[in-house]
Amino acid sequence: LAARTKHYEVIDYLISMLVDNPTDNWKGVGISVALAEFGSQAVGPLLQLLNSTNENEYYGAFEALSNINAEFLLPKLNLALVDNNPQVRRAVVALLGLNGDASLIAPVLDVLQKDTDELVRMSAAKALGRIIAAIGGIKEKEAATLEVLNVFKKENNPAVITSFVYALRYIGISGVTKYIDTLYDKTISQPVREGIISKPEAGHLKK
């Protein structure tokens, strides 16, 4: 118990350092890596920090969370998918995408279909591409891609579709153009085409 209490004191101290040094990027990275070493004990406080309006604090927390072992991280991320703050939800779906676990396709698809915040849905679309990219085997990737495309065929928001098309680049399936063409047929072709050519990838914190 004493050791656990000590750990939380260290976590609180590291987070206070992260908050007190918002402009020191190098120090922020070091603190984030140190926080990640505490695993599940650091997840709660770091998820809370995702509410910060300071980008350095936010990205510091995101960096630390992205380095925490999935075993400790994923159970608490699933709970945070329904957080009241869309900024937190955007970060959470992005973190799920970084884990590349095929079992996460279903909860991320659920966010894509049910969330009312456009940026959350765009983040979910990109996360789906990253998850699929991490699946081993061409046939498995294609099956997962088609599963996701069945949902996107009902999608009418060009920004969300464009985010997924961007994410398809991670997948690396030969002939992936046919999937992109399927989405072109569903949405307003020209804006999406222009977006793919010229628009930078949307971040999960802001446009």
Notes on the structure:
This protein has 207 residues and is mainly alpha-helical. Helix content is 74%, strand content 0%. It is built from twelve helices and no strands. It has helices spanning 2-20, 25-36, 40-49, 55-66, 70-80, 86-99, 105-114, 118-133, 138-152, 158-171, 177-186, 189-198. Helix 2 (25-36) runs parallel beside helix 4. It starts with a helix and ends in a 9-residue tail after the last helix. 35% of the residues are buried.
Radius of gyration: 18 Å
Number of alpha- plus pi-helical segments: 12
Please tell me the overall pLDDT.
Answer: 75
Query: How far apart lie the N and C ends?
Result: 44 Å
> Which secondary-structure class do the elements indicate?
mainly alpha
Low-confidence stretches: 195-207
- State which percent range the strand residues make up: under 5%
The main sheet comes to:
none
Number of strands: 0
Which percent range fits the helix content? Answer: over 70%
The coarse silhouette is: elongated
The sequence of SSEs as H and E is HHHHHHHHHHHH
